[in-house]
Write a structure and sequence with these properties.
There is one protein chain. The protein has 181 residues and is an all-alpha fold. Helix content is 73%, strand content 0%. Helix 1 runs antiparallel to helix 2, helix 1 runs antiparallel to helix 3 and helix 3 packs antiparallel against helix 4. The radius of gyration is 18 Å and the shape is elongated. Its EC number is 1.16.3.2. Keywords: Cytoplasm, Iron, Iron storage, Metal-binding, Oxidoreductase.
Length: 181
């Protein structure tokens, strides 16, 4: 069996790797749209700090998508703008929003880990190295999502609880805006 070279004159990206990276582009694009929708719902419901937090996260997810987009094209591949459909626009509660965020971030982590595993297994060390930023970023994203959910447990949702949670989410937003995640 003849072994294909990873690096050629035209491209340094294997087709399988390109496909996985484009799937991640789609996931990041959907993340951006999902968080934008959540931000809009939060703003409509009066959760101003939660909405700011989510608007910022929507922008960050788009930046994550664009970083992948550039990498694919620079490596000789073809980054594909994903179709974004099926985005939910209504939620039952602020808690549900943040439960969904954590579930989503865990799925993103699994996807990132799959790409890293693939890149290592095919000895594509450039992609492996590039993806390390995403590995670190996902740890931060999951930590923030868990922290946001902890607020519901610590503060409670009765009385001024939701207002207080929104205030605390504003503090998480400030941490994120200053370069946290």
């Amino acid at each position: 069996m003849k072994h294909k070279e990873i690096v050629t004159l035209q491209r340094s990206l294997l087709h399988d790797t390109e496909k996985l990276l484009n799937q991640q582009v789609e996931m990041e694009g959907k993340s951006s749209a999902y968080y934008l929708s959540m931000a809009s719902w939060c703003q409509m419901m009066g959760y101003e700090n939660a909405s700011k937090y989510l608007y910022t996260h929507s922008d960050e997810e788009r930046m994550h998508m664009m970083k992948l987009f550039s990498y694919i094209n620079e490596a000789g591949g073809h980054a594909i703008q994903p179709e974004i459909t099926g985005i939910r626009h209504h939620f039952n509660s602020l808690r549900e929003v943040f439960e969904l965020i954590l579930e989503h971030e865990i799925q993103v982590t699994k996807s990132i880990n799959s790409i890293v595993d693939h890149a290592f297994s095919v000895k594509d060390f450039a992609t492996f190295s590039f993806m390390q930023w995403y590995v670190t970023e996902q740890r931060e994203e999951e930590t923030l999502a868990r922290r946001a959910l902890e607020l519901f447990e610590i503060i409670g949702e009765e009385g001024v609880g939701l207002w207080t949670i929104d205030q605390e989410l504003g503090k998480l937003h400030a941490t994120t805006a200053e370069g946290g995640a």
